TrEMBL record:
<feature type="domain" description="AAA">
    <location>
        <begin position="13"/>
        <end position="163"/>
    </location>
</feature>
<dbReference type="InterPro" id="IPR025669">
    <property type="entry name" value="AAA_dom"/>
</dbReference>
<protein>
    <submittedName>
        <fullName>ParA family protein</fullName>
    </submittedName>
</protein>
<dbReference type="Pfam" id="PF13614">
    <property type="entry name" value="AAA_31"/>
</dbReference>
<dbReference type="InterPro" id="IPR050678">
    <property type="entry name" value="DNA_Partitioning_ATPase"/>
</dbReference>
<dbReference type="InterPro" id="IPR027417">
    <property type="entry name" value="P-loop_NTPase"/>
</dbReference>
Amino acid sequence: MNDIQSPIQKPFVITVASTKGGSAKSTNAANIGAFCAEHGLKTLLIDTDTQPTLSAYFALDYMAPGGIHEFLAYQDVDPSHIISKTAISNLDLIQSNDPTNNVSQMLRNAPDGAIRFSFLLKKLQGYDVIIVDTRGTRDITVDMSVLAADLLFCPILPHTLSAKEFIRGTIGMYQELQTFEAFGFKLPPLKAVANCVDHTNDVKFVLQHLYQLFEQNFGQDKTLLDFHIPNKVAYREAATYSLPVYRHSKAEYEVIKSLCSLLLPQFVTHFGQGFKGE
């Protein structure tokens, strides 16, 4: 297992968040994480959702006895007790093991509740990228994940109600968390992307208004990427087979490569290389 005490450069933390459920956060986290890992980046997935979709996405070569509960509850827990190893080389996982939501209650009662995650992540050495999946609602575990991130990645479904919830919920959360900046925290830049996009007129209409909204009302810290993830059955099929989508459908390789390059431009030279088994 990885030695969390060894000195190494701080990993880049991406938090995947949306207060609207069903926006494919876990699918995106899995595909981004696998792509990074298969292109030579030591990657850790962390599942903070009480519905452990990301935890169940990939087969495991080693299942740790603990997970996110122990990571947040015990500051000196041994890495082998909480970090599982997926069947994909370079891709590790801290599983969600909190079905009754005890973690949220514990954090709400703790004086360092919303900021504890930020400090604990600094102890996780040996990774290039950490990807945090969150639940599809406002919760202290989502707040802590945003505060700990270097980048906030938000998939948006291109539907009117989903877009309205994104503005009300996700953007509202982000603005409320700005109060932590008075205590030395710097909120991560927010990069949103339209997810499950088809070619219907309704989707084109919603996207047009979303781009106008971002351009006219938000600063440079909030960006709607000029890029979208298509609505294809391959993404659902890949999840069924516990595969990254680009392994199930080669047509999606360039989509995930482009997404990772936009989110992680500092690693773009890695993404130009092929991956094992290609």
